[in-house]
Amino acid sequence: MKIAMPYQDGVLLEHFGRAKEFIIYNVSDLDPVTSEVIAPEDLSHAAVARALKEHGVDVVLCGSIGEHARQAVEGEHMLVFSGITGAADDVLERFLQGNLEAADGDFAAEGGCGGCGGGCASGGCAGCSGCGGAEREPYVETRTFTDIVTLTSENFQTEVLDDPGLILIDFWAEWCQPCRMLAPTFEELNREEPQVKFCRVNVDEQGELAQMFGIESIPTLAIVQDRHTLTGSVGLRSKEEIKAMLDGCK
């Protein structure tokens, strides 16, 4: 996976559109391997996006970014996390550890509706009326699952809304390299946690479900129980971190 940031003097530059240089980190197994700094000759949004994609970039971390720049980057099938500040190396480390919170729709670490934003007022967050304040059913120890459930608009009611137990949902897409890196961990945890229902939502095929949860970046994990989103995370997470999230909800 390759991660890019607008860059100047070792720091993530505040505004994407004003950057003349970008640092690109090559990451393997959640560890940075190499880095390089590029300086595109053409600094138009479309040209910068193409240059980043030609260098194999999967994820862009930045401070502020205009609508047209975001559209150009996302049009090249790269993920965008904005609202970020700090030294570039520190930002990368926090992102790989799953401790980086962007300002554009990421889940909160805990509490409430998991940071689903305005979706609560309109029935989003799987219908989480009350935004986390309501009573919920206890974790169900007796049930067991073996297969990961592919969620669609047709089965969401029965598989999620009508199920009072603990559910972990992975929002992903086939083109997303971080999603592919997360998949083996998700499958391994599914085998080790038979009392938890593991589900996947392909955001390209199930846009309505992604919108319901306020998904803006992937991979995103959401833990749901009894129509409440208990917590969630955006970006790559280790097996231990996901297991700790689940244990905290049991």
Strand content: 15-25%
CATH homolog superfamily of the largest domain: Glutaredoxin
Per the CATH scheme, the topology name of the largest domain is Glutaredoxin
Q: Point out poorly predicted stretches.
A: 103-142
Number of domains: 2
What coarse outline follows from CA principal-axis ratios? elongated
Set out the fold topology.
Elements: E1 2-8, E2 11-12, E3 22-28, E4 31-38, H1 45-54, E5 59-61, H2 67-75, E6 79-81, H3 88-96, H4 124-127, E7 149-150, H5 156-161, E8 166-172, H6 177-192, E9 197-202, H7 207-212, E10 220-225, E11 228-234, H8 239-249
Parallel strand pairs: 1-5, 5-6, 7-9, 8-9
Antiparallel strand pairs: 1-2, 1-3, 3-4, 8-10, 10-11
Helix pairs in contact: 1-2
